[in-house]
Write the C-alpha cells for this entry.
Amino acid sequence: MIAIVGAGPAGSYLGYLLARQGKDVAILEEHDRIGAPVQCTGIVTHSIEKFFRLKQNVIAKMLNKVIVVGKRDRIEVNVDEIVMWRNKFDEFVAEMAQEQGAKILLNHKFLQLNGKSKIKVKDKKNNSVKEIKADVIVGADGPYSAVAKAAGMDSNYKHYIGMQAKVKLSMDTKAFETYFGSDFPNFFGWCVPESDEAARLGVGCLENAQEYFYRFLEKRTGKKEILCWESGLIPLYNPKMAIQNGNIYLIGDAATQVKATTGGGIIPSLKAAQTLCDCIVNSKNYNKEFKRHSGKELLLHLKLRSLLNRFSDKDYEKLIEMMSQEKVRKILKKYDRDTPIPLVANLLLREPRFLYFAKKIFS
Ligand SMILES: Cc1cc2nc3c(=O)[nH]c(=O)nc-3n(C[C@H](O)[C@H](O)[C@H](O)COP(=O)(O)OP(=O)(O)OC[C@H]3O[C@@H](n4cnc5c(N)ncnc54)[C@H](O)[C@@H]3O)c2cc1C
C-alpha cells in the first residue's frame, strides 16, 4: 500500500496517477474537509492544461493583463492567467484520485514514522492513535511537513511568509497587479480580483510581514475591510534537499518544489507528481529524476530570485522600461513563467539589454 500524507494538489494528483496505474493508495488528510483552510492566491498559467481540463466551477476569473507597478512607473502587459477557487481546485483533484480508486481518509493526522514501513496516525474524529502499514510513504503535507521532519529530510529549509487577505475591493476584474521595489523587499506585493467586490491582496517577505502588509493595504485600498485571512508559508526551493530516502518520498511544498520568482507551487507540484509516479512504478531514483525533469527550471527561478533581491528601485524602473517594448511584450505573452528557460532565452535574444541583468545572475 502507498500512503500519501496530505490531500493538497501534490498529494491528490499523485494519488490519482498511482491509482490509475492500479496501485493501492490511501491519502491521509488531517482536516475534516479537502481544501480548507485556503492559503493561496490561486493564480496559474494556462500550463495547467498540460495536466487536466479544469472544471468551470473551479475558475473564479480569467485575466488578460498584469499591471507591473514600480516605485515610479507602471506598465500593463497582456497575459493569459486563471484565478482559481483554491478550495474547489483541491476538491476537484481529490475527486479525480477517488474516481481512480484512491481512498481519502479525512481527519487523519500523520504523527510519526514507526520504522520504515509503518506510520502513526491520529484519527481526530475518534480521538485515537493508530498504526498504518505502508510499503511506500509520501510526504505531501505542505511547508510544515511532519513527514520531512520525521524522516530527517528537512535540513536547510528557508521560507517566505505569504501574508494575504481577502479584502472588499472593486478593481478591474480582468487584470491583476504586482508591486515591486523597496516597499516590498526580497519579494513582491499582489492584488488579484476574485469577484466584482473582492480581491486577494498580499505581500511576501522574509520578516515584518504584518508591517509590510498593512502599509500595502492602506496604500492600495485606503484600509478596506478584511474579509478573511489566507496567509501561509512559501518555501524557497532548496536544490540540495534530499527528497527520497529509501521508500520515503517528499513532494510539493514539503519538497520545496516552488518557483522562487513568484512563490507559485501548484504547477511544479503537478509536474513533480508525474515524475514521482514514474519513479515509484518503475523503481527509479526520484532525487535524480526530479532534477532531470524540473531541476533546471526551478534553479533558474532561484537564480532570478537572487538577482531580483539585489535590485534597486532604479533597476526595477529599467526593467519596467524594457518590458514596455512591443517585442518584449510579445515574448512575455508567448512564453509563460512555467517555461522559464525558453522565456529567458528569447528575452536575451530579442533584447540584448537584458544581458545587463543576466550578467548579475552569474556574477
Ligand atoms: C499566500 C500564498 C499565496 C500563494 N499563491 C499561489 C498562487 O497564486 N499560485 C501558485 O501556484 N501557488 C501559490 N502558492 C503556493 C501554493 O499554495 C503551494 O505551493 C501549494 O499549495 C503546494 O501544494 P501541496 O499539495 O504541496 O501542499 P498544500 O497545498 O499545503 O497541501 C498539504 C496538505 O497536507 C495536509 N497536512 C499537513 N500536515 C499534515 C499531517 N501531519 N497529516 C495529514 N495531513 C497533513 C494539509 O492539511 C494540506 O491539505 C501560494 C502560497 C501562499 C502561502
Observations:
- The longest strand covers residues 59-69.
- The chain has three domains: 2-39+87-157+241-304, 60-84+159-234, 308-362.
- Residues 5-11, 28-31, 39-44, 109-110, 140-142, 146, 162, 164, 202, 231-232, 234, 252-254, 258, 263-266, 269 surround flavin-adenine dinucleotide (CB under 6 Å).
